[in-house]
Structures are given as structure tokens and as C-alpha cells.
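re the bet — no i am not wrong, look at it urself. input seq straight from the record:
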Amino acid sequence: MQVIHTPLNDVKLIQPRRFGDSRGWFTEVFNTNTFASLGLPSTFVQDNQSFSARGVLRGLHYQLGKPQGKLVRVLSGHIWDVAVDLRRNSPDFGKWAGFHLKPHTDTGELEMLWIPEGFAHGFLVLSETAEVLYKTTDTYYPAGERSILWDDPTLNIGWPLDALAGMTPSVSAKDAQGQPFLSAELP
């Protein structure tokens, strides 16, 4: 398993090793011992899966009180995944990074994204549909659920909206009520 550092401290791209032949391939996506030896979390408590159409934008989500680290994997389609550092003591506080995630990279590698606790997370579906599976380090906590506006001018996230060919991103009513970064209740 290969761990690739990203521009945001503690956010990692993870590429599991695939073994294949003419019949297909096999990979070990998660192993407690392997993750622990790589300095990654080795305990996850919840798996979530979403199915979305082109132009759906989910996020930017985070939880107070019970923060969730997320291990994100795209099962089908293509998303642009974003992590925003909300950790006030981090040198990357208020910075974001975006990643094109597909079931395989252009070179055929499987790829997952590790986003630790203390980050907001969101994604935009760029393909006709996309299925996303993510493991979390804590359970869903409705009382602590928060959202930052996806188009917040302070964060100025460079969403690849040109890939939508003029389509406006589709956000949930809850996400449309997200808070601006400068007035959001942060961890």
C-alpha cells in the first residue's frame, strides 16, 4: 500500500496494491495492521455510501463534538473531492485541496483519500453518476452536524464547474443553508 502526501498536512492519498491476471484483479482495501503500521487510523465505526447524478455537490460537511475522519473511495464515476482544514492550530488552517477521484487513476491504480478529523469535506460529481463509499472514525452525530457554504468567498475553492458545461451545482436545502467560513462554528 502506498501513501502519498498532499498539499494539506495529514490528508493522504492511499493506493492499495492490486494483484491481477487474465481473470481480473484482487486488492486488500483495508487492513487494520497495515493501516496502523502506516500511521493511518485502524478503527472505523461506520460505512456510508452515496449515489449522485452529475452536478450534485455535497458539502462542505463536518461535525462538532464527535468529529469524523473519512476514508473516501469512488466505486463508480468521477468526483472532485475537497478537504478544508478547520484545525485552528494547524499551519494549513482555512486552506483547501481538491482531488479528482475515480475508481482507478489514469494509470490504473486504485486510490482512496484519507481526510482526518478536523476537516470539512465535500465533493462535486463530474460524471453522469457516481457512487462514493466512505468509512468514518465516528458515528453520525446530528447535534454536531455543520456545513460551510460550498461557494464561500473566503475559502475561494476552485470547483471545476467548467466540467459541468453550464450546469449549476445541485445542493441540498440543508447545504444551501451552510454558514460562511468566517462566521461558522468551528471545532
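see?? The longest strand covers residues 46-53. told u. also The chain has one domain: 2-183. so pay up
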